[in-house]
Amino acid sequence: MTVDLVIFTVRDDALHVLLVKRGKEPFMGDSALPGGYVRPDEDLDAAALRELSEETGVDGRELRLAQLRAYGDPDRDPRGRVITVAYLALGPDLPDPVAGTDAADAVWVPTQEALAPGYGLSFDHGRILSDAVEEARSRLEYTTVAADFCREPFTISDLRRVYEVIWGTALDPSNFRRKVLRTAGFVEPTGERRTAEAGRPAALYRFGGATELYPPLLRSGDVLG
User: Fold this and answer.
1) Positive or negative, the Cα torsion across 165, 58, 20, 104?
2) Is residue 23 packed enough to be buried (19+ CB in 10 Å), middle (13-18) or exposed (0-12)?
3) Euclidean distance between the first and the last CA atom of the chain, given in angstroms as a whole number
4) pLDDT in tens, 118-157
5) List of E strands, 72-128
6) Cα(193)–Cα(175) distance, rounded to whole angstroms?
7) pTM score, two decimals?
């Protein structure tokens, strides 16, 4: 039994995923999601936190790690039958990772690049990453997880940009602002404004504490169109 972790952040206006370069076989030198074997004396969550810290230096306790799903294709690992549980977490402009244990390197990679044909992620990590991207997009529709990408305080424009980057589409600023402010518990004003070089200073907000969005912010445009 292993755990693998998909950690997303937004950098340079693009969705990035945390990857390591494997320092041992199989797939030595190739890119992979951070992860590893579950020890006999630990549960899955503890294993995920340990592997993330050991391989990248990122403290998962500061993230909302959640299980994505289990993967158990018989031939997914050349070492034998290995079932993995994938975890997903989102964070605001996370720091540069520091490689450790059996990882030769740890870096943030644009998700679009990591999923491109020929990039060559180890094991079935391309499939896991693809599933995680779709899960992140879906969660933005029905939950307040987009706020995890924003350092407080943030503007409505900051929040909208998270949606645009992850969904890969431009949203109408006025309509998005109206929908967000009408959704109870999504954001709450701080009473302060961010000084702008030009134009009116933007109002600042913090996360409002809600976990679900009602009505949802749908990619289809039914709500945001």
Assistant:
1) positive
2) middle
3) 44
4) 998 999 999 999 999 999 999 999 999 999 999 999 999 9
5) 84-91, 103-110
6) 21
7) 0.91
CA distance 29 to 169: 34
- Token digits for 215? 């009505």
What is the number of residues in the chain? Answer: 225
- Say if residues 110 and 133 touch (Cβ distance below 8 Å): no
Distance CA 107, CA 91 (A): 15
Q: What distance in Å separates the CA atoms of residue 193 and residue 203, rounded to the nearest whole number?
A: 4
Angstrom CA distances, 187 to 147, 154, 184, 196, stand at 9, 10, 8, 21
Give the contacts of 74 (CB within 8 A, at least 6 positions apart).
81
Q: How far is residue 74's CA from residue 41's CA, in Å, rounded to a whole number?
A: 25
Q: What burial class does residue 31 get, using C-beta atoms within 10 Å of its C-beta: 0-12 exposed, 13-18 middle, 19+ buried? A: buried
Q: Of 58, 57, 28, 54, which Cα lies nearest the Cα of 120?
A: 28
pLDDT at 167 over 50: yes
d(CA 74, CA 165): 35
Question: Kind and range of the H or E element at 142?
Answer: helix 125-142
Cα–Cα distances (Å) from 209 to 30, 48, 178, in that order, read: 40, 26, 18
Quick one: average pLDDT of 203-220? 92
